[in-house]
Amino acid sequence: MSDFLDSSRLPDLADRPARRHPARRVSARRVSAGRRLALVLALVVALGLPLFLNDFWLQAGLFSMAAIVAAVGLTLLVGTAGQLSLGHAAFAALGAYAYTWTAGDTGAAPAGLGLPPLLALVAAAGCGAIAGALFSPISGRLRGIYLGLATVGLVFVSRHVLVNASSVTGGYNGRRVEPFSVPGFSFSNSEPDYLAVAGVEFEGLHRLWYLFVLVTAVAAALASNLRRSRSGRALASVRDGETTAAAMGINVRRAKATAFTVSSAYAGLGGALMALAFGRIAPDLFGLQLSIDFLIMIVIGGLGSVAGAAVGAVFVTTLPLVLTEYGADLPFLAAPGSGGLDGATLSRFAYGAAIIAVLLFLRGGLAGGLGRARSTLRDRRRAPSAGADGQAQPGRQADSGTAKDPGTAKDPGTAKDPAGPADRPEHELPSHSAPAVPSRSKETSA
Amino acid sequence: MSYLLTQLANGVSIGLVLGLVAGGFVIVFTSTGVLNFAHGSVVLTGAYLVAALQPDIGFWLAALVATAAAALLGVLVNAVLVRNLAEHNPATAAILMLGVDTVLLTEMTRRIGNRILPLGAPWGADVVSVGGVTVPTARVVAAGVAVVLFAALWFLFTRTGFGVAMRAAAADGDTASMMGIRLSRTGAAGWALAGGLAAVAGIFLTSFPTQGVAPSIGLTAFAAIPAWVLGGFDSLPGAVAGGLIVGVATALTVGYEDDLQVLGRGLGEVVPYAVMILVLLVRPNGLFGRQAANRV
Q1: Which of A138, A376, B18, B155 lies deepest, with the highest CB count within 10 Å?
Q2: Closest Cβ–Cβ partner in A149, A159, A353 for B229
Q3: What is the pLDDT of residues A220-233, one digit of tens each?
Q4: Out of B103, B228, B294, whose CB is closest to A349?
């Protein structure tokens, strides 16, 4: 016991938290400011892009944003609550058809309700939520991958319903999707017939782009708020240990059912966006492969992170589109149908290989890898000052009074600092003691 | 009456084959904790190898080679990919297998194309008639082989030291490894067994009533997932029972489709999943699954 309370170490132990605490706060603030900057940049880019993109890329963007909404919902379920779902294509289908049916023309062949599209969009999310809630007897009781397998059934059952309930869904051939509109403005090529911004004619795709950016941003913001909220922490606690969570007073069953319901609502909304982006929907769009794609998006992106889900969704959605569109330009590719390696086949290979590579080499997916690369960069940038700090510390330990005063610090370590000791405001001093590793290793070796 | 019996016989036979596939899911899951989504592609790969090799080396040798190759494929996937995952947890392992499945299925689709490869099995398109019940010979052979294989599995897992070691590793890996059981070996054996079973199942899934080897077989094998889930995730007898339930239910729905028009066309594809959801509503751990230790 007396070893642990070695008097020579005591001052250090007592004073380390005080030294570290402000440092951590500063770096945390810096990260969140950086993240905010990145978000603003992303938003500006997203708003400006339609001015430069051609129809192919606009379409790819729309598909990506629809996928982002669904993937963000799924990452709440899988990453935050630890529940797996392979049934999200079913909820996306439900949302897509709910939108199409609610907004559909009353006189068209598969008739609709003829309600305003905005209401239909809400109905899509609502239907997703209701279907998710109806599944709660199963989703509340099963855990993790068990739930994932159970939800496989939903995709097949929903496909069966879609094919057979042709008075609403149009059967195998599907049905046309009513374009989105608010009174006086349509997100299609008409009404107003001609609309131009900065000399670029804004057609249906351009207009939809902004609607999608808005919906995606709101959905992502709500999701990251939910993750940080009381309910989000409850879900994370259920993920990390159901017994512990229950002991903390969390109703585990209800938490799991809630996560599933919220996630299904997101899938429904994402499905409605998909319907808008496609312009025509059919049951085959919402097969098991879509569920699998959703899951792959969030795992490639990095489980649980909203940004990761977005990155994964863009990657998974655009890769096949790009390889199919531009595959003809690659010299080693054969023509489609010739039995050789064509663009579609290559994109499937690349897709599978990308999944495998990310899972083998990137802990935490693309988002995790990006975060590590960023922190490595930051450490490297800080390394000189950290070294200086390490050398400065002995002086400070010997006589803390003089070392704290930057003007009197005479040892060579601080002189190396490019900023110069005198220019540095005193309150910033603790911030670059953040990499406390050198001092700690000194303590243990002492 | 004989119509009903015929449907039942078909259902039992298909159910046993599905049981083989479901058994592969169970063995991989219990021995390494991986949800093997690539299992359907392994089934397809096995069947494809038989079809591709049999013109040169004959059916039986081709079947043997295909079974060994499928087993080796499983072992390699486990050794090269699953064991090198950056984060080893069931969810990432499952997604990894989805990636493997994509690659395998794409390669198979590329090789097979739009063709349907004949399997060249000696039972061909023969049928057997017993007391008014007519079933394809392939189905009878399938049922026989499946029963023999299940008996062999039972023997392995209850009467041999290595089988018991595999069960111990499945029940509690940490303790088992402290008792001197090499988890890497039991894991590899599990993947090999599952691969071999998949190849055998692939042969029978592509035999007579089916035209031959086509990429859609991978999806047929997917119907073994409900069988696996129905039986409970970690029970081999459960997998057999689940396979039988799914097989019989599907055969009866397809056989009496005309009377079930109300429920829509193509009901046979949905029945396995509908049955699974219904059973899970009543018994969340499946019919034979271990009850989760903690109730919250």
Answers
A1: B18
A2: A149
A3: 888 888 888 888 88
A4: B103
pLDDT over threshold 80, residue B290: no
Nearest to B96 among A161, A303, A356 (CB): A356
Torsion of CA A58, A62, A67, A70, to 10 degrees: 160
> How far apart, in whole angstroms, are the C-alpha atoms of residue B287 and residue A138?
15
H runs (alpha helix) in A140-251: 144-164, 166-169, 204-228, 230-240, 242-247
Residue B4, chain A, CB below 8 Å: the answer is: no
Cβ distance A161 to B274 less than 8 Å, yes or no, reads: no
Tell me which residue of A339, A132, A122, A146 sits closest to B232, measured CA to CA.
A146
pLDDT digits (tens, 9 = 90+) for A73-103: 998 888 888 788 888 999 999 999 999 888 8
Alpha-helical regions (H) of A76-203: 88-103, 117-134, 136-139, 144-164, 166-169
A292 interaction partners in chain B (CB closer than 8 Å) = 98
Q: Which residue among B86, B102, B110 sits closest to A355, beta carbon to beta carbon? A: B102
Q: Count CA atoms within 13 Å of residue A251 on its CB side.
A: 7
Is the CB of A84 less than 8 angstroms away from the CB of B280?
A: no
- Which residues, in sequence order, are CB contacts of B182 under 8 Å at separation 6+? none
Residue of B84, B265, B277, B295 best to disrupt the A interface, most CBs of A under 10 A: B277
Q: In the numeric block, which tokens belong to residue B248?
A: 């019989």
CA dihedral A210, A216, A221, A225 (to 10 degrees): 160
Measured CA to CA, the distance from residue B164 to residue B186 in angstroms comes to: 10
Q: For chain A, give the longest Cα–Cα distance.
A: 88
Listed by start position, the domains of chain B span 15-214
- B233 — contact with chain A (CB < 8 Å)? yes
Residue with tokens 């111990």: B168
Place of tokens 């007579």: B208
Q: Do B110 and A341 touch (CB under 8 A)?
A: yes
A115 and A124 Cβ atoms separated by less than 8 Å: no
* Prediction pTM value: 0.77
